[in-house]
């Protein structure tokens, strides 16, 4: 679980805050369904991960996340995940991601804050119990909550559309604690869900944006450095910038 550490004290050495999104895992073959026309096997993505009606679509919901877990289990970390793990051992680093896969952890990262939950978790909404189910299958009406035995009250532990994202408080705390010597690095994040442009403007220290391509949602002027290429290909250049500010 992500914790805020005392290293954020004013006299602490410069630190790195990394916010990553789908672009980080794209080179590992993890798809985003927004890019795929918002469809999964003909079903609107809003139907299979919508907090307002997930109980009505339970088989579809679990079928969709079953496929997501299988895809994640088959994927491997790419050079960008490896780089984040390396940077975490080199500098005091706080990692926050919108990704629900575990590729950062499998690359060796620790203490990752998953803003939108994790694929391997389940939560029972009949009793509020949460647990790590792993990447294996889940069968509706057979598998049950280990605490209360509910079968149809269990939802994947990923934050759905229309659902509260409790870890956004952690993101806000991390942003608030940035000092002028700390670096904010944003990787593979469209800015459609989180206010990335504003974060770039409000961060008091150096800011780096590495996205696949420019976007109207995140004007270049919001970041000190903008690198538009796949995350895996930008690693060396990003690392050189980080060394300049953090060593
Ligand atoms: Zn339960």
UniProtKB/TrEMBL annotation:
Zn(2+) binds at residues 124, 127, 145, 148. Residues 1-247 form the Deacetylase sirtuin-type domain. The active site is at residue 116. PROSITE patterns: SIRTUIN. It comes from the Bacteria. InterPro entries: DHS-like_NAD/FAD-binding_dom, NAD-dep_sirtuin_deacylases, Sirtuin, Sirtuin_cat_small_dom_sf, Ssirtuin_cat_dom. Keywords: Metal-binding, NAD, Transferase, Zinc. GO terms for molecular function: histone deacetylase activity, NAD-dependent; metal ion binding; NAD+ binding. Its EC number is 2.3.1.286. This is protein acetyllysine N-acetyltransferase. The lineage of its organism: Bacteria, Pseudomonadati, Pseudomonadota, Alphaproteobacteria, Rhodospirillales.
